[in-house]
Amino acid sequence: MTATAGGSDSISGLAAATLSVDGGAAAASALLEDGVHSILVTARDVAGNTTTLTQNVSVDTVPPSVVIAESGSTGNEGWYLSETTLTAETEDILSGVASVQHRIDGGVWMDGASISVQEGVYVIDFRAFDVAGNEQTASQEVHVDTTPPAYAFASSLKGSVLADTVHLT
To answer: CA distances (Å), 71 to each of 117, 142, 143, 144, 152, in order?
Structure first.
């Protein structure tokens, strides 16, 4: 972010305006890195009057981090065997996290850093905003199958006597 010194004087006019960032050299403008800065602005009019103003400025250009954690009973090959909860773990060290939202399968965004899903395959998106307005989004596909497979025999075997290899389907 670039900070520029300015000012006005309605009688004699503005002669010069400079700023100093964190006690550095005076200049007409300065590039501000992320963090909190103390800025001293000095303005001088044509008549020779001078005024100064000190202001603290916070700069945050880095979006918050979003990591998705899953919890539930795990099965095979990435499947969950129970209701599964996904939680967005967020952090922003500069201005702080302001809000977190989630949505299922590209639907409507809802407030909250956690969501539970039942049986099915879903894409869950989370997005976090920091106080400065930066946004970060993370997505996770989750597979939940809580129903055991069904089986039935094509014909009744009750009382049958079988020999050799028997194939049951």
So the answer is: 11, 11, 12, 11, 33
Res 159 pLDDT > 90: no
Strands 79-80 and 135-144, how do they pair? parallel
28, 117, 120 from 148: Cα distances, Å: 71, 18, 13
Nearest to 115 by CA among 107, 126, 106: 126
Read off the pLDDT of residues 116-142 as tens digits, 9 standing for 90 and up. 999 999 999 999 999 999 999 999 999
Cβ(6)–Cβ(28) below 8 Å: no
Please name which of 55, 137, 141, 58 lies closest in space to residue 93, comparing C-alpha atoms.
58
Would you state the pLDDT for residue 70? 96
Three-state DSSP class for 34?
A: coil
Cβ contact 40:20 at 8 Å? yes
- With a cut of 80, say whether residue 22 has pLDDT above it: yes
Rounded to 10 degrees, the C-alpha dihedral 7/10/15/17 comes to -10
Task: Share the mean pLDDT of the chain.
Answer: 93
